[in-house]
Every structure is written in structure tokens, then in C-alpha cells.
Design a protein that fits this description.
With about 400 residues, the protein is α+β, with helices and mostly antiparallel strands. It has 2 domains: about 190 residues, GAF domain (Beta-Lactamase); about 140 residues, Heat Shock Protein 90 (2-Layer Sandwich). A 6-stranded antiparallel sheet has the order 3-2-1-6-5-4, with helices on both faces. The chain has a 5-stranded mixed sheet with strand order 8-10-11-13-12, covered by helices on one side. Helix 3 runs antiparallel to helix 6. The longest helix has about 60 residues. Bound molecules: adenosine-5'-diphosphate and magnesium ion. The site of magnesium ion has 5 residues, from helix 9.
Length: about 400
């Protein structure tokens, strides 16, 4: 004797068999759905979006009321409902189902095969989970969601209605699971890449920090040597050398603070440099007027800072005789994709200020060399009192 449900199911089956065009239409719709999911996966839809689309469209393609993605939680030997459609509130993201013979999904996972069960109540291979019972589910179909190595979980479609899931339906469900599996795998890979990138960034910061420390050691050794030097001039030269090393160390300090190592805010960097020089150059007061937000390539910023370092050293050395010698350093955006750095003192002026290019101390040679490297121009302005050096620098190296 067959039950009323089975009789109804037979009726539906025979209607489908009598009307092949209906079956054909459903297959066509299923093909369209797979294509749609494929495109959305290729276009890089987020995993959540794809999970939701998959359960919606899969349910549609199989005329079923329920569909869900069960994510395997190996440590608990259970699945969690990761995405779903048709279920009552509070199921998705919360409800767990046993991953053993407690569920058709567990059976699919253990057997490694797709599972169709058109009569859950008669099933001997596995038990019917409470979740399905509560929702009046009569039949279920499960396929494994394969990640690259381990399975991610199971894609399951469930229905209350009497008709049967068929072999062809498995092909459709497996197709949807394969697309989702690839997207899950891609997400895992992307996550690994993101983590690797974050590790690299931390490492790079750490490296900059260490380079800064090493350079600071070199700088202080030079200062010790300067203090030890018998000859005053040699001491001064060693001291100047220590400031050059410090200026480069400062760049690494700046880099280990920020996120980007290829570019930096040149204003902030010069500000920090001036702050240090203000403390180490006792005889004068280094003041700054800095425009922040001028972000340029790190090597250009370092070259700029080395120019500023020499200009400040000279101002301190030759133009800060009085008790309150002031050196003013400015950084600002200029016209036509340039920025302008100026260093002004209040000293007696250059000895022969008509031709400062002709003077060939190491400082001026360093200034000339970096000015050329930056494709910049330098101009000297005579004030009363004092001298101002104005360096106009392109924001970018010319191609
Ligand atoms: N701000 C300044 N005020 C007055 N004279 C300066 C100033 N900057 C540079 N000079 C003069 O230019 C010369 C060259 O400077 P530089 O090349 O740095 O060599 P150094 O500092 O070793 O003497 C200095 O010796 C000094 O006479
Ligand atoms: Mg000098």
C-alpha cells in the first residue's frame, strides 16, 4: 500500500513525464543559473554575496523551498548553516547539524558521493536532523562543496513537496557547488595573500626601524670621535658627518611609522629633522613653517633633507654669531607640480654672495649634487640681515 504522499508524488512524476517541455524548460533555467553564478564568481563577487546567490538560485533551479550551505566544523564534527534560503529566522549562521550519520549532509561527506533522498521518513542510511523535521522537509539532495584540499562543507537542497529529485538535478546541484567551491578556494588564497602582505609590511617596518637604529649608532660613534678629535677642524668635520647620517636615519624612522615605504610626507620629515637639529645646534634657534601633505618618493625626500641639512649646518656655522641667531626653514607647495624648500638665516651674508656656486666646500658640493639629482633649482636671496636659499623641486622625477 502506498501512502497518500507517495501517491501524490507519483502523480507529480507522471505529470513531468507527460509534459517533457516542462522538464526541458527547467533544465534550460538550470543552465542559465549556472552561467549566472559562474559570471558572478568570475567577476569577483564577495564570498557572502556568492553564498547567498547560490542558495537563492539553486532553490529556484530545483523548485525547492529550502537550500543551504553547510560549513564543516571539523573540530566539532558538525556543520553550521553558513547561508540559506527558506529557513525560519535564527537558523542561518546559528544552527548546527551533526556531520555524522545524523544528517544526509554528513552521509554525503562520509561517502564522498552526492546523496538523493526522496523519502526522508523511510531513510535507513542516516537520521533526519531536527532542523529538517521542524520545517516539514520530506526530501533532500546533497553534494560536497570541495575546497582545494579538504571539503569546505555541503550544499543541500530540501523540499516539502512530494515530487522527486532526479539524477539530472544532481548534475545541476554539483555544478553550483563546483562554482561556489572555486570561489571559496579563491577567497582562502586571497586571505593567505592578504596575511602574507600584512606580514611583509610589518617586516618592512621592522627593517626600517633597525636600519634607523644602526644608523643612529653610526651617528653617535662619529660624534664620539668628533669629541675625541685633537684637531678642532677634524672634530667639526666628523660632527657634520654625524648630522648627515642622522638625517638619513630620520628618514627610516619616518618610514617605520607610516604605512607606505615608497613615499613619504616630505614636510613632516623635514620638520622632524629641524627639531633634532634645533636641539643639537646649540647656538641657534631653528624655526619651521611647514606645509604638510606633500607626499613624494622616499629617495627624493631624503635628497631634499640632505640639502636642508647642509643649508642649516652652514647657517649655524656662518650666520649664527649672536646669542639669538634664528634659522627659518619653510616647506610649501609651489607652482607647476613643484614644492619649495627655503632656509633663511639672519647672519652677515655670504662673503662673496654674487657667486656662491663657485664656492666648493663639501657642503656646497653636496647641495649642488642633490639639486641636480632632483632636477631642482636653487636660488640665493640676500636679505638685510641674512641669506635665504630657496630650492624649487619637482614633485616627481621626470620620466
Ligand atoms: N648661510 C651662510 N652664511 C654665510 N656664509 C655662508 C653660508 N653658507 C655658506 N657660506 C659660505 O660658503 C662656504 C662654503 O660652504 P660649504 O660648501 O658648506 O663649506 P664649509 O661649510 O665646509 O665651509 C662657507 O665656507 C661659507 O664661507
Ligand atoms: Mg658647510
Amino acid at each position: 500500500m502506498s501512502t497518500p504522499d507517495e501517491r501524490e508524488s507519483e502523480k507529480v512524476k507522471s505529470t513531468q513525464e507527460c509534459d517533457p517541455s516542462q522538464g526541458l524548460q527547467q533544465r534550460i533555467r538550470q543552465q542559465e543559473i549556472l552561467a549566472e553564478l559562474g559570471v558572478s564568481a568570475l567577476q569577483g563577487a564577495s564570498l557572502d554575496q556568492l553564498l547567498n546567490d547560490t542558495v537563492q538560485l539553486t532553490a529556484q533551479g530545483l523548485d525547492a523551498e529550502f537550500c543551504k550551505v553547510l560549513e564543516l566544523l571539523p573540530a566539532e564534527n558538525s556543520f553550521i548553516v553558513r547561508a540559506g534560503v527558506g529557513w525560519s529566522r535564527g537558523v542561518v549562521g546559528v544552527t548546527k547539524v551533526g556531520a555524522d550519520l545524523d544528517s544526509p549532509a554528513g552521509f554525503a561527506l562520509r561517502s564522498g558521493q552526492p546523496v538523493i533522498s526522496n523519502h526522508l521518513e523511510k531513510e535507513t542510511r542516516f537520521r533526519t536532523p531536527e532542523l529538517l523535521r521542524q520545517h516539514g522537509v520530506r526530501r533532500a539532495m546533497n553534494v560536497i562543496l570541495q575546497g582545494d584540499g579538504k571539503p569546505y562543507g555541503v550544499l543541500e537542497v530540501d523540499s516539502r513537496s512530494p515530487a522527486d529529485f532526479r539524477e539530472q538535478d544532481i548534475a545541476f546541484l554539483q555544478g553550483a557547488a563546483n562554482i561556489l567551491g572555486m570561489a571559496i578556494e579563491r577567497e582562502r588564497e586571497e586571505r593567505k595573500l592578504r596575511e602574507a602582505l600584512a606580514r611583509n609590511e610589518t617586516l618592512l617596518k621592522e627593517m626600517n626601524h633597525r636600519v634607523k637604529n644602526s644608523l643612529a649608532i653610526v651617528g653617535s660613534m662619529l660624534r664620539l670621535q668628533a669629541n675625541d678629535a685633537e684637531d678642532e677642524q677634524a672634530g667639526e668635520l666628523l660632527n657634520e658627518a654625524s648630522h648627515r647620517v642622522d638625517a638619513i636615519a630620520k628618514a627610516h624612522d619616518q618610514l617605520s611609522r607610516g604605512l607606505d615605504v615608497e613615499r613619504m610626507d616630505v614636510g613632516k620629515y623635514i620638520e622632524a629633522l629641524c627639531h633634532d637639529l634645533d636641539e643639537s645646534v646649540a647656538q641657534c634657534d631653528v624655526r619651521t613653517e611647514i606645509e604638510e601633505g606633500i607626499v613624494i618618493a622616499t629617495d627624493r625626500a631624503v635628497a631634499t633633507a640632505l640639502i636642508v641639512n647642509e643649508l642649516i649646518a652652514n647657517a649655524a656655522k656662518y650666520a649664527c654669531d649672536g646669542p639669538a641667531g634664528v634659522i627659518t626653514v619653510k616647506v610649501a607647495r609651489g607652482e607647476g607640480n613643484r614644492f619649495v624648500v627655503s632656509v633663511r638665516d639672519e647672519g652677515a651674508g655670504m662673503p662673496d654672495d654674487s657667486n656662491f656656486h663657485g664656492r666648493k666646500g663639501l657642503g656646497m658640493r653636496i647641495i649642488a649634487s642633490f639639486t641636480r639629482q632632483l632636477n631642482a633649482t636653487i636660488e640665493m636671496k640676500k636679505h638685510d640681515p641674512g641669506t635665504e636659499f630657496i630650492v624649487s623641486i619637482p614633485l616627481q622625477a621626470s620620466a
